[in-house]
Design goal:
Chain C: It comes from Candidatus Abzuiibacterium crystallinum. Chain C: GO terms for molecular function: 4 iron, 4 sulfur cluster binding; metal ion binding; oxidoreductase activity, acting on NAD(P)H; quinone binding. The structure holds three protein chains of three kinds. Chain A is mainly alpha-helical. Chain A is built from six helices and no strands. Chain A has two domains: 104 residues, Four Helix Bundle (Hemerythrin (Met), subunit A) (Up-down Bundle), CATH 1.20.120.1200; 44 residues. Chain C is of the alpha+beta class. Chain C has a domain of 98 residues: Alpha-Beta Plaits (2-Layer Sandwich). The chains are: A mainly alpha, B mainly alpha, C alpha+beta. Chains in contact: A-B, B-C. Chains A and B meet through α1, α2 and α3 of A and α2, α5 and α6 of B.
Amino acid sequence: MEVLTAISKVGIYVIFGVTLLGAMMAVTLRNIFHAALSLALTLIGVAAVFFVLRAEFLGAVQILLYVGGIMILVIFTVMLTTRIGDRTIPTSNHQQWPVLIGALLLLLYFVRMIGKTPWSIKSELAVVSAVQIGKSLVSTFIFPFELTAVILVAILIGTVILAKSDEGEEKS
Amino acid sequence: MDQLFVHIDQAIIHWAQAVLPDWMAVIVAMKIPIVAIAIFGPVTMMYLTLIERKLLARIQNRFGPNRVGKFGLLQPLADGVKMLTKEDIVPEKADKIAHLLAPILIVIPALLVFAVLPFGRNMIAVDLNIGVLFFLAMSGTTTLFIFTAAWASHNKFSLLGGMRSVAQMISYEIPFVLSVVPVLVVVGSFSTVAIVEAQPGLHWFVFTPWGAVGFFIFFICAVAEVNRTPFDLPEAESELVAGFHTEYSGMKFALFYMAEFMNVFTVSALVATVFLGGWQGPILPSWVWFLLKTYTLILIMMWFRGTFPRLRADQLMGFAWKFLLELTFVNIIVAAIWYEMRSPLNHLTAAAILIVTIIVLFQFNKTEIPKKRIYKYAYAD
Amino acid sequence: MFGIGVLKGMAVTFKNFVESYYKKERLTTIEYPEKRLAEKERFRNFPFLIFDEKPEDPRCVACDICAKECPPQCITIVRAQDAQGKPLKKPATFDIDYSICMNCGVCEEVCPFDAIFMDHEFELAEYGRFEDLNYTIDRLLKPKEHFMKIRPTDATRIEAELKKKENAKKAAAEKAAAAAKAKAEAAKTQASQVPDTKPETKPNEPAQPADPPAEAK
């Protein structure tokens, strides 16, 4: 059985590694399409982490929304940019050193925060079912849930208005 | 007979426990369904190509492949050999890495979704408690890889195919996902096993008003999701050569084909599971029922292909956004009403609401037939 | 109503699908190598040469008209000669390059001796691209029964014409013979008076150097 535990541990670290690698590549790659694909890799990696932590609902939703939806939109946008695949596009500018220092400071701060937080460590992972998530969404977290709905409706109406105004211009 | 494959599985596990060390036995037990799926998927795909060719041929009053083996039964093997030995051409300006990765990656979700399909009583690889959601999420990622392939080919036709694929996918994903929601509302679980068990005997969801409408929407969206005629705009032969796989040859092309046909199978299986009661049914063994329903749906898809011409892009979008989407929203509410009311009344109410909705939607979607034009100056006198 | 047309279309394809299994007129495909369509009599493909009794004695007299008329120039004829170098009325070689022939049938039409006809043979695949498709006389020669078999109407007509011609010839010959006889008899009566003025047939001209065989390539 120890072999199995070891294998699964290695697997988890591989997932972490791939996720981080994807994130790094998404930022550093010159080819914008490759960067977008690396971002997709990162998102899939995050979903895999969710699956490992037995949060299957979150994992599936992560893939459904981020990989299936948002990544597609991102790539669609990439398609519409000019100079796709142009290797001369710089991915950094002269501010990289100050930004690096800032990022390191932020990282230190996060590490400190994570270290200080009193995490409640359970011996067994609590499996949260979709039903529980749904119930809490319409009871405890009803306000943020409804707020999101309002924002989405606003976006929808805005889109419709934008699409409509084009037509009006054509007519006049 | 019903538990035939389960018994085989058990026998192999027993043998493994007797012969192998403990940890290896666990791995063997884990691998059995994986190996079974890894064999079942491609073999299904191979013979689906044959079935499709035979069926389309018969619809067009031809024989179809009948040279290699009896009834052309060895044709898929011949095709496979041909594909394997074919030259692999990579366009000079292609994005080499993405061009290589796309066909490999596209098979992964197609194989993964087999895991949550209940092939029969106790015959499921993983009974995830989010089974349906997992399926939808995985099949949604296919688009990403199609798009990768399209972009990597550095070909205008490929790119157009990819663009169309994305537009179509985004439109049909929404009614596709939402049309399952009524079932989830009624069953109260994402698990495919729970969904099947909620439809005992012949009490399939398709026999309820909301189930019939949901089945209709889900099946149409499924056809659109796997890019099959009449929704095959991404690979429209007559317009885009072959769409996103124009620049692929040999085994890479075969992988695209494999992914497409495995998606056809899995999506039909999911429709059967969610609305047609999965493996539920009298007399016959459970897995026979499951395969029977799945293959019926696949044959209907092929029948569609033999019948309908391709939709125009605007018809495609209009159908998804102006008709299916509204109907799914109404359907969710109807399912909730049906669930809360008492028995004879709920069917009537649900049917009435749905019929009214459909009629109203038809009224709104009516295409205006333009008046017959009179050409004033076209005639000399 | 939306959807009626959809169902109608599906009904049509379904009907086609089902009826293709039991209705003969639906499934018109002939599975070629095993079953074949009956050959149409007027079908014509590549030319062949005809012989009457034995293949050493073809009808062709090596007149070279077909070779001259052939639009793509695919026929090569070398006239046969006897031991003295006198040209004979038969070909020594008669090659038709099937890879060049365009199946026009001009050779058949121009042949004054009804010696070349268009065949029904169409399974002509070969491994060699040049040599194997250059048909020599031994592959071209076919008995007249073959012609009768593949194109009975034409064959009977041509045979009848030939017979007529032959009969006419025979009749003419008989007539000539009779005339000659009469003449001879008439001559006999005057034999004592008139000396024989019949010119002697000239001896053969000195043998011409044989034509160099036409270079194939």
